[in-house]
Amino acid sequence: MSNTNLDFDFEALRDLHDSVNDLLHSPATKLEIINRGNEKWAYEISEASLKMADSCAAAKDLLLMSKDHLQRLKSAFRRVSAASEADSAGNQFAPHRLPRKQLKKAILKRIQSIKGVKNEYLATATDDPNLVLVANLLSEVLVTILSIVKSLSSLISMPYPQEGRSKPMEMFKLKLTRMDSLLAWGKYDAAAALKRLEAVEVVVEDLEGELEQMFRRLIRTRASLLNIITS
Fold first, then answer.
1. Residues with Cβ < 8 Å from 138, sequence gap 6 or more?
2. Which of 30, 95, 158, 219 has the fewest Cβ atoms within 10 angstroms?
3. At 12, phi and psi to the nearest 5?
4. Does 219 fall in a domain?
């Protein structure tokens, strides 16, 4: 994965999840869960894995929305860079303010939904070490999905040159602005904005790929648990 400057250890989580899925596929694990009479908890955790797979898919949808928005912004900045009218920035960015607000609202809604998944599905009371391991893994997966969604707010926020009484070298110091604030960039450096947008797109594509792999592992987890219960 590309260097995203985000604090995600996807490789460690991937290795752990693969190990847990291999464990669930073991006949010895299946026998131990059945002998302990923990089919009910196996089913509950399988439902949790399905719910998390749904959250994973929803997070991926947000990433797709973000990619589309970023591509539209790139087109707007290119038009600003090529235009000569003084008010071109305002004309080009105005149609994108509402979509940015809607995207932010969707991100916040998804964050609350994911937090609800944690509260609803992971409060298991089993003493089976295998199922406890799976439940702990799912907690780690959920935290990662939540962190990815939260990171979107920062990723799609645009930096802009800070105005005011500053030294010349500080005039163009970048800071994160509100998600619906785009006009300032039009007055300064559209080329720099395009460069940032392209970098953000790479990160979003990387996160999209990780979510897809996460989704597939969660489906495998659910299938293994259901196989233990039904066969």
1. 45, 48, 49, 52, 121, 122, 221
2. 95
3. -65, -40
4. yes
The answer to whether residue 162 sits within a structural domain is no
The Cβ of residue 124 has, within 10 Å, a number of other Cβ atoms equal to 19
How confident is the model at residue 179, as a pLDDT?
Answer: 36
Average pLDDT of 112-141? Answer: 77
Range of the domain at 197: 10-152+170-230
pLDDT at 215: 96
Beta strands at 159-161 and 174-176: parallel, antiparallel or unpaired: antiparallel
The count of structural domains within the chain is 1
pTM of the model: 0.77
- Beta-bridge partner residues of 159: 176
Which of 220, 230, 216, 213 shows the shortest CA–CA distance to 10?
213
**What are the CA-CA distances from residue 157 to residues 18, 32, 122, 197 (Å)?**
34, 50, 33, 10
